[in-house]
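Thought: the user wants the 3D structure for the chain below. I'll pass the sequence to the structure tool as-is, report back what it returns, then summarize two notable features.
Action: structure_tool
Action Input:
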Amino acid sequence: MTGPTEGPTHGPATAVTVPIAGAPAVGLDELTASAGLMTRTDRKYVLTAHEARDLLAALAPSARVLEINDERDFGYESTYFDTADLAAFRQAATRRRRRFKVRTRRYVDTGACFVEVKTRAARGVTVKERLPHDDDASLGAGRGFVADRLAAADLPDLAAAPLVPTLRTRYRRTTLLLPDARMTVDTGLAWTLLDDGAPAAQAAAGDLVVVETKTGSAPSGADRLLWRAGHRPDRISKYATGLAVLRPDLPDAPWRRLRRRHLADVVPCPA
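Observation:
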């Protein structure tokens, strides 16, 4: 579990998705139409590979799996942007009601890229808005879109603040369409700390699996399966948790239990 990686690996993802290898496929257009869920409630769980396989085996009879060009496992790279004093991170660390994340996301297998703004609305609902983008390392022409979306989310001071690349994440993702939710299964998670846009340090989460259910206001059947197995939603943010791992000087109260339980052996290494 220690040490850096050059990028996401296929091994853990392939092992985890075995229980749904024979599940029927769903295309991207149908998935988006059925469960785009840009405004949603997200619940995240950190599981071992064995626990994830048990969950997927239980869900397999009713699951459909996103398939594009005969592939079901896709690489994601995200670059997160924050203010010089890490306003987005500190809002999450202090559990502020109003929070934001700004990132570019590149789909490794297709090359598609978007700039995305996530904000927290009433009652903990996440709102994600995005725009096609041509540069995953810079906001560039997306700065106006980001400023508009932050201003609309009642964050005018942040809308005017310069944002710099702070952290890059890489992982593999399998997406399931369930009768009452969309669920993602992420493996091979790795973080790279950025200093003035250049890699400064990195760490990897080993064989841990991050499962996220995306629903309306009501819990899904997958959530209830997880609860019956003794799992409760974990406070994990790929951005904030990764930054806390790579920057021990930062406050980590919301993720301290998660780090002690799952990430105690993760040691940052030079990039």
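Final Answer: Structure generated. The first strand starts at residue 25 and ends at 26. Residues 49-59 form the longest helix (11 residues).
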